[in-house]
Design goal:
The chain is α+β, with helices and mostly antiparallel strands. The chain has helices at about 1-35, 90-105, 160-175, 185, 195-205, 235, and strands spanning about 70-75, 80-85, 115-125, 125-130, 135-140, 215, 220-225, 230-235. The chain has 3 domains: about 1-35; about 60-150 and about 240-255, Heat Shock Protein 90, CATH 3.30.565; about 155-240, no CATH class.
């Protein structure tokens, strides 16, 4: 009798464990996974055809500058924008120059305003230009604007990189008084700022579906969102960066090559 009851108990436990596992599996598939999918920012791609798969970058690889001629066009003593030349395709060249002039001039609201235009990246057939609070990023092979996720390899988990970089940005602002800027990296410990995770989650939620403002540099990317300047450095994410090689062509697009 006892053995029969023991068998029933074992069978009951097995069935109970099976039902528990099935319930957990269904919960993960249809509830938990859906809720975490909502957390993933959607990065819009303007030029999907350019997203050929390329390997990531290297900290030790040398990347040549584009063979562009970049000249300042002076408006007055406190205002100038830049103009490029040297592209074989003059239609693309003129399109870029026209937009840089129009966009940069549009930031001037009064005669006392200043306008300084800076080229932050000129490599790998891309050009990144900053004029006041405006950032213009171009694919020089097409003249089109670069989208944020074109800068990364196809396999990169972009939302993870943005979340990590944003976390470090807010942590630095929060703990800025603890260490000097030079010693920050040596002393930074994520566990000391675990209370910031909810704040980062909420900010990334708000960033979803936005067209991000960003600056490209030879040593990384600055993502700008509201008051946050989110640094995504080459030294930490080199293998995820594609912008050094993605837009290179077999034949040079420059007149002097």
């Amino acid at each position: 009798m006892f053995q029969l009851n023991k068998k029933k108990i074992i069978i009951f436990i097995i069935i109970w464990l099976f039902c528990l596992g099935l319930t957990f599996g269904l919960w993960y598939m249809f509830i938990y996974r859906d809720s975490t999918d909502d957390f993933t920012p959607e990065y819009k791609v303007e030029n999907e055809e350019t997203r050929k798969d390329v390997p990531g970058s290297s900290l030790y690889q040398h990347y040549d500058e584009n063979d562009l001629i970049i000249e300042e066009v002076k408006i007055d003593d406190n205002k100038y924008y830049i103009e490029i030349s040297g592209l074989k395709d003059k239609t693309i060249e003129n399109k870029i120059n026209k937009e840089i002039e129009e966009k940069c001039k549009s930031t001037i609201k009064s005669s006392s305003d200043y306008l300084y235009t800076t080229v932050t990246a000129n490599l790998g057939n891309i050009l990144s230009v900053n004029c006041r609070s405006m950032n213009l990023n171009y694919n020089l092979t097409t003249g089109n604007h670069l989208s944020f996720n074109e800068l990364f390899t196809n396999s990169t988990n972009i939302d993870s990189i943005v979340s990590k970089a944003l976390f470090r940005t807010i942590a630095f602002q929060t703990g800025n008084g603890q260490f000097s800027e030079d010693s920050w990296e040596q002393n930074f410990n994520e566990d000391d700022f675990s209370n910031l995770e909810d704040e980062v989650f909420k900010i990334v939620q708000k960033m979803k579906n936005d067209k991000y403002d960003f600056q490209i540099y030879s040593d990384g990317i600055n993502l700008i969102y509201g008051d946050y300047y989110i640094s995504i450095p080459l030294e930490k994410f080199a293998t995820s960066f594609a912008y050094f090689t993605r837009f290179k062509t077999e034949k040079s697009i420059f007149e002097n090559e």
